[in-house]
Write a structure and sequence with these properties.
Blueprint: H1 2-31, E1 41-45, E2 55-60, E3 64-65, E4 73-74, E5 77-81, E6 91-97, E7 102-110, E8 115-119, E9 130-136
Antiparallel strand pairs: 1-2, 2-5, 3-4, 5-8, 6-7, 6-9
Length: 137
């Protein structure tokens, strides 16, 4: 009889443990702790003679926090690095692609140094599927 009671006690403790784990999982689901957005990086080839065919790295800028937004973290810039020194003082333009179309977000800027920072203006980083950078005279 003692073994039977001991087995019941172990089963009850196991079920109680599963119940606590289930509460923790359901609480996480209720609080929506899973971030749905993504901020990624990549590299693109730039068709500029000054770049000599070397890819330029592109990434989203540092996410900024906004307590009043529906999604608390937003990205406001695109960052291009690895721009060749030979491209200094040349013009550049930037476009982004969303599910719908290509949108030119910077019609012209001037390269200064080996990196370019471009504001996304009113575009949501989550909607960006591709990025295009052109450097020209």
């Amino acid at each position: 009889m003692n073994k039977k009671n001991e087995r019941k006690r172990k089963v009850a403790i196991g079920i109680a443990g599963l119940g606590v784990a289930g509460l923790a999982i359901s609480a996480a689901a209720t609080l929506n702790l899973n971030w749905q957005g993504n901020f990624e990086a990549g590299a693109i080839e730039v068709g500029a003679q000054c770049q000599d065919g070397v890819a330029v790295d592109v990434r989203f800028g540092t996410p900024q926090f906004s307590a009043s937004a529906s999604v608390p973290w937003a990205v406001n810039t695109l960052e291009f690095t690895g721009v060749a020194e030979n491209c200094e003082a040349k013009n550049y333009a930037v476009a982004i692609k969303t599910d719908a179309d290509w949108i030119e977000i910077v019609d012209q800027g001037t390269v200064s140094g080996t990196s370019i920072s471009t504001p996304l203006t009113s575009h949501d980083a989550e909607d960006v599927t591709e990025v295009a950078l052109t450097i020209f005279d």
